Amino acid sequence: MPNVDLAGNNLIVDSIQISKSTATLVSNAATVTKLAGTITTESLTTAAGASQAFTITLVGLVAGDIASIQRAGGSNTRQNYSYSAVVTTNTLTVTVYNNEPTNALNGTLIFNYVITKK
Quick one: fold of 3-116? Predict the structure, then answer.
């Protein structure tokens, strides 16, 4: 049971259950229906120092919503990469940056996303 202070400012919970989508990108794009989920990319060969954008369609998103991205696995063996995310109307654009000095990415990436509505 959540605890709320008398002013309603603090919410403390032991866990949160979220309904989530799963999708595999095709041509670096997918459509999902939930504010949280897991995305699997196609096999990537993004060069060292380069980036690749993924377009995820989710009706109901608006600019100002906040996206959180977390690594979740994949077949890629390179470890020096990062993500950024931008939310616009009905679209979450996630970009992976290959920060390797010489090696290309070499497989699939799996990442989780969570959208916090503004």
Answer: Immunoglobulin-like (2.60.40)
Tell me the CA distances in angstroms from 92 to 4, 84, 88, 95, 105, one per residue in order.
Answer: 32, 10, 6, 10, 22
Q: What is the pTM (predicted TM-score) of this model? A: 0.86
Kindly report the CA angle at 88 between 82 and 92, in degrees rounded to 5?
Answer: 40
DSSP helix/strand/coil, 41: coil
Output the average pLDDT for the chain.
92
Is residue 1 over pLDDT 60?
A: no
Are 28 and 54 contacting, i.e. CB atoms less than 8 angstroms apart? yes
Query: Alpha-carbon dihedral of residues 75, 66, 58, 30, nearest 10 degrees?
Result: -20
Parse the chain into domains and list their residue ranges: 3-116
